[in-house]
Amino acid sequence: MKRSIIPVAGAALLAALVTFASSSCDTVYDDDLQPCPTGVSLHFVYDYNMEYANAFPAKVDCITLYVFDSEGKHVTTCTETSDVLSREDYRMQIDLDEGDYRFIAYGGLACQAHSFAVGQEPKPGTHWSELSVEMVHDNLTSAQKLHDFYYGTAEGKVEENAYKEVTLRLMKNTNNLRVVLQQVNGKPLSDEDFTFAVTDDNTLFDNSNNLTANGTVTYSPWSQGCQSVGENEGEVTVAYAEFSTSRLVKEESHRPRLSIRRASDGENIIDIPLIDYLLLLKSDAYSEMGEQEFLDRESEWSLIFFLDDRGEWLKTQIVVNGWVVRLNGMVIEF
Q1: CA 296 to CA 155: how far, in whole Å?
Q2: How far is CA 247 from CA 127, 253, 298, 322, in A?
Q3: Where are the alpha helices (DSSP H) in the chain?
Q4: CA–CA separation, 44 vs 165, rounded Å?
Q5: DSSP string covering 152-214, please?
Q6: What is the pTM of this model?
Q7: For residues 236 and 11, what is the distance between their CA atoms, to the nearest angstrom?
Q8: Residue-wise burial string across 227-255, b where 16 or more C-beta atoms lie within 10 A, e elsewhere
Q9: pLDDT of residue 283
Q10: Residue 221 in contact with residue 242, Cβ under 8 Å?
Q11: Which of 128, 159, 205, 303 has its CA 20 to 30 Å from the CA of residue 232?
Q12: Checking DSSP bridges between strand 175-183 and strand 211-212, what pairing results, if any?
């Protein structure tokens, strides 16, 4: 089977070429003519975000596409890592025989700085159910800033003498979490006085992007420090830590926790179910959006905790992504 990948410079040009080619093949018979190309023209879209806007050209810097036939068997693998991905009119054009196909795409796998890898590269005939992707980690620990990772799938039917336009939508599987500690009376805090960690079992994805058991990973901050905010007499020094994590899922088998300990005695001052606190941001404005959809669309998180004079957490309010959430009377299972 002949296969090729052709970056198309413009959607209008592609349409004109396909129209011309189709009409030529349909109306002209000549043994010397080459057969019309048959295949797909894939349009990648990343609009599964809180802005509902296509950010693929700005965010995805490499793409890997696995193609499977109607029996679920691997046909070919295509990759693109060049700057062509940043063009609004980019299409991945692939020659394929007639038939039904499943397309599975990953953004971030083929980049030099990738943070996720395929378990076993599919070979011709490999069934799509065998596909899996794992986050790169160091013996179930991670302190790195993960390279952004995306997943998407689509199906399409290829017909004779035509290129099928297929849209493949991606979702983001990585998150950045910034945690800030602030002393309520303005006393300066140092990040060196605390130990920060996030734990979860979220490093292994199956062929449908579901998380599967792979052991609990401990995320340490990829960045931490102190920062002064405010001006003059109102200036305070806060401690912060930033985590980079894999997909966050609200399931009984996946219960990520955020823990912050005092370095002096190792005592936990904060130990919370992370998902429950992030979902405090899901306001009435997103009442029709499911909890998992909300977690998947949002990928940048910030939490601000307030400490009293003894360095204990004041469990009366928390700031989530800039919104103050009052916890008085709220019951959250710890």
Answers
A1: 22
A2: 25, 13, 11, 22
A3: 11-27, 56-59, 274-278, 291-297
A4: 11
A5: EEEEEEE-TT-EEEEEEEEEE--EEEEEEEEETT-----GGGEEEEEEE---EE-TTS-EE--
A6: 0.87
A7: 53
A8: eeeeeeeeebbbbbbbbbbbbbbbeeebb
A9: 77
A10: yes
A11: 303
A12: unpaired
For residue 234, what are its two tokens?
């109102």
**Tokens in use for 178?**
């910034």
**CA-closest candidate to residue 182, choices 37, 303, 30:** 303
Q: Tell me if residue 24 falls in helix, strand or coil.
A: helix
For the chain, report the end-to-end CA distance as a whole number of angstroms.
Answer: 57
Tokens standing for residue 255 = 């219960």
**Distance, C-alpha 333 to centroid of its chain:** 27
108 within 8 A of 66, measured Cβ to Cβ: no
Ordered by where they begin, the domains of the chain are 39-172 (2.60.40.2100), 175-326 (2.60.40.2090)
Distance of CA 60 to the CA centre of its chain: 10
φ/ψ bin of 152: left (φ > 0), alpha (ψ from -120 to 50), beta (otherwise): beta
Helix (H, G, I), strand (E, B) or coil at 285: helix
8 Å CB contact between 309 and 186: no
Q: Tell me the pLDDT tens digit for each residue of 99-153.
A: 999 999 999 999 999 999 999 999 999 999 999 999 999 999 999 999 999 999 9
Q: Which residues make Cβ contacts (< 8 Å) with residue 151, sequence separation at least 6? A: 104, 105, 106, 107, 133, 170, 171, 173, 205, 209
Per-residue 3-state assignment (H helix, E strand, C coil) for 132-168: CEEECCCCCEECCCCCCCEEEEEEEEECCCCEEEEEE
Burial classification of residue 22, based on how many CB atoms lie within 10 Å of its CB (0-12 exposed, 13-18 middle, 19 or more buried): middle
Summary mean pLDDT of the chain: 89
Residue 300, φ and ψ in degrees, nearest 5: -115, 120
